[in-house]
Design goal:
heterotrimer; A alpha/beta; B mainly alpha; C mainly alpha; A: alpha/beta; Rossmann fold; 10 strands; 22% strand
Chain lengths: 278, 382, 537
């Protein structure tokens, strides 16, 4: 009985005693490496032999029509969904398929969801406090003190995302765009090595979009950023390299112009949505 | 309301003392304890203001229920786990205390056996089952009051939270848990007195349980335990861990993605809550003089949830108010018109959930906001 | 005692032949009442052996009222009045009993029980009387009576009876009586050391046959002992199979009850996501509808039961709609609050029944055609009411499946549960669908109540006993999956019954509960989980 087994396996029960995850090893190139990944739900192949590599410090945009598998791909990287086959490596040392969500998060992979999810009952300040890179085990969390250093760091991020005045308001009263930024702010507090951002500008005004573009491009270099986005204008404004997903695998990869002129890409997008094809 | 920056103290256990709500709560509680004590001891029995031993005992029972309600509010209000099985932890704590009290009877039982409780002699057992060993020692029994429910919560919670059983599913299996335990404790073979449970207690730590002074002492002890339990829970919910709990309650997946091992936080709080419930049970048993399997009944567990809902979820003091209000009403009703009590209880369930989702405490805060329209206080949603 | 009895049987056989002859030539014998009175007087003595003699005397007399006297004596209804008359008590309930004259059969009206003296018998006499009546009955024209008496003779045959028994077997027309008599004779043969008897007994499952074989297996004759042993082993195996079948039957029966109780919940909880803790009370309402219907139609329990099926459905469905409209609709998307509110409703409903009707259990009559059992063989008989309930559960399940799969309502329900906004925009009136679905789920709970009224006590706590089990079944089977509910219900029923013999009823239930608790923690989505994106929500 595997239930008993997991009870008796020492490293499952006592894995809070295990050493903290060692830093990511990127000496051999990419920070994220996905090879031949496939996953299916009830026979439907959401991801089909996907191969993708993200270099350290890169800003990558991923586009593709609905159902291309963008969200599922993020689920796999963050440990929410287990693929049926394939391998996913973070740097050259960490096999993500053997880790769970909190482990992956503390390793330095941050994720922003398509639908902004912040902790609505908590204040903006507290949202950032929780997200901050810290010892996230139980007792350190219980006895955690608020120091000046932490306050400064939170204030710094609050400045970056422009929510200084709203710091003690419950996150629930923020506007849609503000929630998106708060979520990005929470990602920043985690000091991730790799940021996964799902549709960051959905429902934003032009101005807000510009600000978000600035934010994301500012991050690249220090961190690797993967952006999934529908809005082609936005993608064009930030992207250096674009990957097109279609039916769960990579259809094309290259600069925005290269990709836009690829006949197979045009075919996939043709008639799908005028705005997206623009 | 949890303040992060303005706290005058930064040590987690003393943090609640700087909160206004805790200050008020503790003052009211201590004042009530003092008042009852004075009215019982100093006022002569023929004076209408005198509080009799029976009433003191009744208040003591209410206070132990209040502690139980605080324990339930900790998991339901802040962690979003609706436990319909907290009566089980309460009862187990009560049984641990009951076993100690049984062993204290010694040779004074009906059958006069030096070691075996009456019901075991009646069942023709010739020795104590192993799990009864040690309960003649007060320190061991009192430790088990916390350890036994804590251990059950640890095993059950470990399995449940690890497999991410939450929401309604968790509620249903906690209910099944207490139901299964009830059936088990009804069996004579379990060695806990079966149907009749444990009763006929004589003394606790050498004090005669039938004397008025002991009753007063138990009442005060329960009040102190409630105060301490309240402070502990407040300390937990105002800590960063408390905020992780609220985060888990409102967006569990998000909490995982920012790096918290949600299941361990849930487990920790669940175990703390179970131990508090066990403590409440242990204080309850010597005051009512009996513990039997009916405390495991699913209806009792769900009633506790009503106390919390009526008082106001995620406030802790609301749980105390709710527990006292409902049980006071129960005392009145069952005395005056017993048939109507279940109607009233049922109606309370419906009315509170439909019309008063934030309970009495929510009503307080609403009225306060209306009169003093300051900053909008933040409240638990859903 | 045995010799004492066989003496009686010998005499009896001589007599019986004449009795049957007389019965055919009609009752021309002018009953000598004085002689009959003498026979009865002989019974009213202290000494039991003397009473035994008197019984033999009655048998030897060719009085055609002998059987009635003996039966009354056996039942303790043959009594004597203060003035010395012998009477038969017709009904011994209450203070005054209606009696009839033992000699003439004339009713004598009511008599105070204080004026009557019973003619006492002991266990030895009871056995003697039963055997005697059995032999008398072997000549009865009534087949049922002959069957009962033939079964009664198993292990009671002795030397004197053996010879005429062979003749009787040859003349007997009913196969069952014939088989029984053959077995009875075979037991005698085994006892008297004839090997062929063992052969005859090999296929029988009757406990008395086993007793006889056991005795033979421990007897002195090694050949017979070996044969008996061998026969016993094959009987044991046969019994084991039958016991297995019986457990399976009881398991399926319990399972069908679980399915019935849970299937309505599978609709309201599984499909709509509404936690209705008052579901058990809807079952209770169905059961009370049956009771009320039988009160309305006294003397016609069968018709009342059949009418209760639509009535129970309607009553529970209306109650369900009332609950949905008054409470549940205001708590959409707040499952835990719904749970609490509906629990409150369940308390109110229970108390309503308690104060409105009675806190005590009500008696619901089982109609003639549902009582009794289907006898498969000596070791296996299936009670009819359970079989009906099992069939009913399957019919209800099939009906629900049809509704969900094949009707417009089913389609709309599925549409609304998958995407409420989209369904509305396509012109589906979501509120109406909610009401209909809830009515359907509640109505099925009512049907469960109608069925349960035939198996358990109908009281205010009826529903409460089933609510946890029902939730367990739905969760174990996989929420939102009707097939899962069926499989889960039946298998939990069978598991429970399999565990019961060695664990006891309560422990079996605890084991099942713990098993489900652990199972849910291993597979939170049940046996048949919904997969893919929809399940993540």
């Amino acid at each position: 009985m595997s239930l008993l087994q997991s009870l008796t396996t020492r490293d499952r029960v006592f894995d809070f005693m295990a050493p903290q995850a060692s830093p990511v090893d990127v000496r051999h190139g990419p920070i994220l490496y996905m090879e031949d990944v496939s996953v299916s739900f009830d026979g439907f192949k959401a991801i089909n032999n996907l191969n993708l590599t993200i270099d350290d410090g890169e800003l990558r945009c991923i586009i593709g029509p609905n159902g291309a598998g963008k969200t599922t791909m993020m689920d796999i990287i963050t440990g929410k969904t287990r693929p049926n086959e394939g391998s996913v490596w973070f740097g050259s040392r960490h096999n993500l398929l053997q880790m769970n969500e909190p482990d992956i998060a503390s390793l330095g992979i941050g994720r922003k969801f398509q639908k902004p999810t912040v902790f609505e009952a908590l204040s903006v300040f507290e949202n950032l406090e929780l997200a901050m890179a810290a010892d996230k085990r139980i007792f350190p969390t219980l006895t955690a003190r608020m120091t000046g250093e932490i306050k400064d760091r939170i204030d710094e991020v609050l400045g970056t995302i422009g929510l200084i005045e709203l710091r003690f308001q419950p996150a629930g009263i923020l506007s849609h765009g503000q929630k998106q930024w708060l979520e990005i702010g929470m990602l920043l507090m985690q000091r991730p090595r790799l940021l996964l951002v799902d549709e960051p500008v959905a429902g934003m005004t032009e101005q807000e979009m510009e600000r978000t573009a600035e934010l994301l491009t500012g991050l690249a270099g220090k961190q690797s950023v993967v952006v999934v986005e529908h809005d082609m204008g936005f993608v064009r404004s930030i992207a250096r390299k674009v990957t097109v997903l279609h039916q769960g695998s990579v259809l094309a990869e290259g600069s925005m112009d290269q990709v836009a002129s690829d006949p197979s890409v045009v075919e996939v997008y043709l008639g799908a949505d005028d705005e997206e094809a623009a | 309301m949890s303040l992060t920056t303005e706290s005058s103290t930064n040590f987690w256990l003393t943090r609640p003392f700087s909160e206004r709500s805790t200050q008020i709560f503790l003052s009211v509680l201590l004042a009530a304890l003092a008042l009852v004590t004075i009215l019982h001891v100093a006022v002569p029995p023929d004076n209408p203001l005198h509080v009799g031993a029976y009433t003191v005992n009744l208040f003591g029972k209410y206070l132990s229920y209040a502690l139980l309600a605080v324990a339930v509010d900790l998991v339901w209000g802040y962690l979003g786990i609706l436990s319909l099985g907290h009566g089980a932890f309460f009862a187990i704590g009560g049984y641990a205390m009951g076993m100690y009290l049984m062993r204290q009877i010694g040779e004074r039982g009906t059958y006069g056996h030096p070691v075996l409780p009456d019901f075991m002699v009646f069942l023709n057992w010739d020795s104590l089952p192993w799990y009864w060993l040690g309960f003649d020692m007060a320190w061991f029994a009192f430790a088990m009051v916390l350890i036994a429910p804590g251990l059950l919560a640890l095993v059950f919670g470990f399995l449940a939270f690890r497999s991410r059983v939450t929401g309604v599913y968790l509620s249903i299996i906690t209910q099944a848990l207490t139901f299964a335990l009830m059936l088990a404790f009804f069996r004579n073979e379990m060695g806990f007195g079966g149907n009749n449970g444990l009763t006929d207690f004589r003394e606790l730590l050498g004090y005669n349980l039938r004397s008025n002074d002991t009753r007063l002492g138990l009442f005060i002890a329960t009040g102190v335990a409630l105060a301490l339990g309240y402070i502990l829970c407040r300390a937990i919910v105002t800590s960063k861990l408390g905020r992780v709990c609220v985060a888990t309650r409102d967006a569990e997946a998000r909490t995982r993605f920012i790096g918290y091992r949600v299941e361990r936080f849930q487990l920790f709080v669940f175990v703390v809550s179970a131990m508090l419930a066990g403590l409440a049970g242990a204080l309850y048993v010597p005051q009512v003089g009996i513990i039997n399997p009916s405390e495991f009944s699913p209806i009792f567990s769900i009633e506790i949830v009503l106390w919390v809902a009526l008082g106001g979820r995620a406030t802790l003091y609301g749980a105390v108010i709710g527990a006292i209000l409902v049980n006071y009403a129960k005392t009145i009703f069952t005395g005056v018109m017993p048939d109507a009590w279940l109607f009233a209880l049922g109606a309370m369930f419906v009315l509170v959930t439909v019309f008063l989702p934030k309970g009495v405490a929510g009503l307080f805060r609403y009225l306060k906001r209306k009169t003093r329209d300051d900053h909008p206080p933040k409240e638990a949603t859903a | 005692m045995r010799r004492f009895l066989s003496l009686g049987l010998l005499c009896l056989l001589l007599f019986s032949v004449t009795v049957t002859a007389q019965a055919q030539t009609s009752a021309t014998v002018e009953a000598d009442d004085a002689a009959a009175l003498e026979l009865l007087e002989a019974l009213d003595v202290r000494s039991y052996p003397a009473k035994g003699e008197a019984i033999i005397a009655i048998l030897q007399s060719d009085d055609e009222r002998a059987r009635d006297w003996l039966q009354s004596l056996l039942d303790g209804r043959l009594q004597r009045t203060d003035d010395g008359r012998f009477v038969v008590v017709l009904e011994n309930r209450g203070r005054d009993w209606p009696v009839a004259d033992a000699l003439t059969g004339e009713p004598l009206g009511d008599m105070s029980r204080r004026d009557l003296d019973r003619i006492g018998i002991n266990n030895a006499l009871r056995n003697q009387l039963r055997s005697a009546i059995a032999v008398v009955d072997l000549y009865s024209p009534d087949v049922e009576r002959r069957r009962t008496s033939a079964t009664r003779l198993l292990g009671e045959v002795d030397e004197e009876l053996a010879a005429p028994l062979s003749e009787l077997i040859a003349e007997e027309e009913d196969a069952q009586v014939k088989r029984r008599l053959t077995q009875a004779l075979a037991i005698y043969q085994v006892e008297s050391g004839e090997l062929e008897g063992v052969e005859t007994l090999r296929g029988s499952l009757h406990p008395r046959v086993r007793v006889a074989l056991n005795r033979a297996a421990n007897g002195d004759d090694p050949i017979i002992a070996d044969a008996a042993n061998e026969a016993l082993i094959s009987i044991e195996q046969n019994l084991k199979i039958n016991r297995g079948l019986e457990t399976l039957y009881f398991g399926l029966s319990l399972g069908s009850v679980l399915v019935l109780a849970a299937i309505g919940l599978a609709i309201t909880f599984g499909v709509m996501g509404v936690i209705n803790m008052a579901h058990g009370e809807l079952i209770m309402l169905g059961a009370y509808t049956t009771w009320a219907m039988q009160q309305l139609l006294p003397g016609q329990p069968g018709l009342a039961l059949i009418l209760s099926i639509p009535a129970g459905f309607m009553v529970a469905a209306l109650a369900g709609v009332a609950i949905e409209r008054s409470v549940i609709q205001f708590l959409k998307g707040r499952p835990l609050e719904t749970l609490l509110a509906t629990f409150g409703i369940s308390l109110i409903l229970q108390q309503l029944v308690r104060t409105g009707i009675s806190p005590l259990n009500r008696t619901v009559i089982t109609p003639e055609w549902m009582s009794g059992s289907l006898v498969v063989n000596d070791a296996l008989s299936l009670t009819l009411n359970r079989m009906y309930v099992l069939g009913f559960a399957l019919v209800v399940f099939a009906g629900l499946m049809l509704i969900m799969r094949r009707t417009r309502l089913g389609l709309e329900v599925r549409a609304v549960t998958q995407n409420r906004a989209m369904a509305r925009s396509m012109g589906i009136r979501a509120t109406r669908v909610d009401i209909m679905t809830f009515a359907l789920g509640s109505g099925v709970a009512g049907l469960a109540g109608v069925a349960l009224s035939q198996l358990t006590n109908v009281g205010p706590n009826l529903g409460q006993n089933y609510i946890i089990d029902s939730f367990m079944v739905v969760v174990f089977g996989g929420v939102g999956n009707l097939w899962g509910t069926l499989v889960a219900g039946l298998s939990l029923g069978v598991i429970n019954q399999v565990l019961e013999p060695w664990a006891g009823a309560v422990l079996a239930k605890i084991i099942v509960l713990v098993f489900i608790i652990l199972f849910i923690q291993k597979r939170p989505r049940g046996l048949f989980p919904q997969k893919g994106r929809a399940a993540e929500g």
